[in-house]
Amino acid sequence: MIITKLQFEGFRNLDDGEILPDSGVNVVFGTNAQGKTNLLEGIWLLSGNKSFRGSRDSELIKFGKDYARLKIDFFAEDRVQNAEILFLKGKKEVKINGVKKNSVSALIGKLCVVVFSPEHLSLVKSGPAERRKFIDNAICQIKPSYGEALSNYNKILAQRNALLKDIPMHSELLDTLDIWDYRLAVLGASVTRMRINYVERLSESAKIYHMGISESMEDLDINYSCITPKDYCSSGMQIRDYLSEKIRENRTEDLKDGYTSIGPHRDDLEILINGENARTFGSQGQQRSCVLSIKIAEAELIKIATSQEPVVLLDDVLSELDSKRQEFLLNKIFDRQVFISCCEAASVERLKGGRLFEVKKGVVKNY
Ligand SMILES: Nc1ncnc2c1ncn2[C@@H]1O[C@H](COP(=O)(O)OP(=O)(O)OP(=O)(O)O)[C@@H](O)[C@H]1O
Ligand SMILES: [Mg+2]
User: Fold this and answer.
1) Nearest CA to ligand 1 atom 12
2) CATH number among 2.40.110.10, 1.10.10.60, 3.40.50.300, 3.40.50.620, domain 2-112+308-366
3) Is the CB of 210 under 6 A from ligand 1?
4) 249 CA to middle of ligand 1, Å?
5) Residue 342 and residue 3: Cα distance in Å, rounded?
6) What whole-number distance in Å separates Cα of residue 334 and Cα of residue 142?
7) Residue 36 alpha carbon to ligand 2 centre in Å
8) Where are the domains of the chain?
């Protein structure tokens, strides 16, 4: 998948204009607060996702304007296609190949994009919830049945938790808990199995990229960490039986706490560099490199699942990386379209091919 043209009108601080990107590496550079992230965010929104900065739609429209329009021409599924989003105050209009769509979600899967922004460092730095969110989003992109399994699991979990809180006042409800326990184990096993499968493949691919970034100095391992021992994780049925047993064992505790203590909602990803936990022992540069390797591996798995090469957006990744790691990112890994934003002119000089765009006070120009 290659973006051949991006047009923007009334979007953030950007002056109305367009860019014609290279099919390989595109470096977007400029000093702070000029509009680099805004440009990358524009591409990201056209993939049908919500802003990676957590912004509201109304914040995307340029101050003093009534609407913002993003339009993209891209080559995918062997043909040139286009997509457009019009942000009006309070609503959005979407068109794909000139045809009006009911919702922005129609764009999902049309233009596949993977983004790394400094916020994604939370994947290593923050608690397990961020890591679970990452795997859930990543699997949803390539396996729609996962989204359904996860949402069913979450519903059962919420119902079981509500029941746990009710039982102390209504002891007659205790008998019904068995049904919820069983459903929780069945759905929990299915979610766990799909996550394990994804993480195994992600880990294999991320390990290779990380070897490249670190010049073979660092061995990256990602493991899915859950209550079920590894020996029982090879089939969904074994996980279900193990979860069932543990849920039963913890019932008294759960009733006391009014909360379900066992299941994939408590699982985590273990991210290790040379066998040490990246969160506790990783340096800033190592943490950044390892999230990058994971993000590029995510793109690789999207490609395998959809046969479409996702566009990769790397916002502000080069800071904190030494010159060799920057060199690897700019020139060695990409057989796909990438947009990298950075501030330092020195990084730009390391780019051997591709195209450069300078962003100055919202004006985006070929450099
Ligand atoms: N809706 C809007 N209308 C006008 N300007 C906006 C709007 N939203 C954001 N901006 C401005 O856009 C400017 C550029 O933001 P952006 O995050 O793209 O900068 P950047 O070039 O990525 O900088 P940095 O190097 O610091 O990350 C900010 O100063 C912000 O105030
Ligand atoms: Mg920025």
Assistant:
1) 13
2) 3.40.50.300
3) no
4) 53
5) 20
6) 21
7) 5
8) 2-112+308-366, 124-279
Give 78's contacts (C-beta < 8 A, 6+ positions apart): none
Predicted TM-score (pTM) of the model is 0.87
What is the bridge-based pairing of β-strands 17-19 and 79-88?
A: unpaired
Nearest to 38 by CA among 8, 74, 82: 8
What b/e string do you get for 160-181 counting C-beta neighbours within 10 Å, with b at 16 or more?
Answer: bbebbeebeeeeeeeeebeebb
Question: Which homologous superfamily is 124-279 in?
Answer: RecF/RecN/SMC, N-terminal domain (1.20.1050.90)
Distance 13 CA to ligand 2 centre (A): 12
| Least confident stretch, 68-77, 118-127, 193-202, 314-323 | 314-323
Tens digits of per-residue pLDDT, 229-266?
Answer: 999 999 999 999 999 999 999 999 999 999 999 999 99
Torsion-angle region of residue 12: left (phi > 0), alpha (psi -120 to 50) or beta? Answer: left
